[in-house]
Amino acid sequence: MKMIFATGMLLLSMTFPGCAGQEIMPGISDTGSPAMHDAERADMTIYDETTPIADVVSDSAFGDYGRLIFPTDDGYYSGTTLGELRLTWYNNIRPEKTVEIVNYLKDHAAAGETVFYDIYTAEEKAADPDKEDTGLFFFKGNPGKRFAVCNAGGGFAYVGAMQDSFPHALELSKAGYNAFALIYRPGAQTACEDLARAVSFIFENAEALEVDTSDYSLWGGSAGARMAAWLGSYGPGAFGGNDLPRPGTVVMQYTGHSDYTENDPPTYACVGENDGIASWRTMQSRLTAMSAMDIDTEFHKYPNLGHGFGLGIGTDAEGWIEDAIKFWEAHMNGKDEHNE
User: Fold this and answer.
1) Which of 156, 177, 336, 144 is CA-nearest to residue 251?
2) In whole angstroms, what is the distance from residue 29 CA to residue 210 CA?
3) Are 94 and 170 in contact (CB under 8 A)?
4) Residue-wise over 268-283: b if at least 16 C-beta within 10 A, else e?
């Protein structure tokens, strides 16, 4: 197995209590709640910016996985309500997007749809309790469309999904793609192992999930971008996953990752010019070197932006995700995805 090491960030090992699941198809377990009748759903409280975060975490619609919607270590976020949420190392957190995401998850979970999948079995979690706090949140697109896995950053100390993977997955699903947001174990090596396992899980259950596995993409910001890039360079098999194709496209935001290989997939990258954690020059140099090896790349830097801007709504970066989707589509084996 290829070993990797993160630099410049705190690496933590954390152990948390587990969550139980029920079998819904071979290889897939779901910790969601039963479907509600229309009358029951009509009586549900709709989240808004004044909703306490604790109320979302404990909402029965989410079963035991509600605790994974926000960082499991409260030392990395502040605020008691959805509108007050702040995440370490992140900027431009939009309360209206946070509210949209949690309402999306609750609405679909309450309708009896699966919005969370375990990637490890109960036996594997019992043998390694660190795997308790892992899994995939599913933002379903059109049946039979390709899939993406979005990986949040957090310095390999925590998973900042509400800013760095949930919003991206939601927008990808709106564009028709099947998007997953990975909750992984902190630590560079374990995070890549969890991503490799997640990709393997999706391939193994592609028919039940109704996803096309060809030309899949990996997305990530900060530490999550490193994860996407490492699997782009070496493939899931290098990190304990199945022997599967590398992603067709990698999309990266604000990371100082500089490694690459001649086998790297087409790569899209963006960053703020004022990022004090990830230098835009480092990102640009990497892509320039990859382009010199005939790897297709696209690079963008935006003025007046620091680290962790997410979707960049209301900033010079707004609309970057649409550009990134077009970049991915341009590398789908020459197919016009919109005409499929």
Assistant:
1) 177
2) 16
3) no
4) bbbbbeebebbbbeeb
- Bridge partners of 301, per DSSP, are 271
pTM: 0.86
Q: Which fold has domain 22-38+46-334?
A: Rossmann fold (3.40.50)
The token duo for 212 is 């096309």
pLDDT, tens digit (0-9, with 9 covering 90-100), for 282-335: 999 999 999 999 999 999 999 999 999 999 999 999 999 999 999 999 999 744
Sign of the alpha-carbon torsion through 23, 27, 32, 34: negative
Residue spans per domain, the chain: 22-38+46-334
Closest CA to 181 of 157, 208, 152: 152
**CB-CB contact of 200 with 239 (8 Å):** no
Using CA atoms, how far apart are residues 37 and 332, in angstroms rounded to an integer?
Answer: 40
Whether residue 284 contacts residue 254, with contact meaning beta carbons closer than 8 Å, is answered with no
- SS3 state at 50: coil
State the Cα–Cα distance between residues 265 and 151, nearest whole angstrom.
17
Query: What SS3 state is found at 68?
Result: helix
Q: Are 52 and 98 in contact (CB under 8 A)?
A: no
Cβ-proximal residues to 136 (8 Å cutoff; 6+ apart), any chain: 116, 117, 119, 149, 180, 181, 182, 183, 198, 201, 202
pLDDT value for 333: 78
Residue 316 neighbours by CB distance under 10 Å: 16
Which residues does residue 183 pair with via DSSP β-bridges, in sequence order? 135
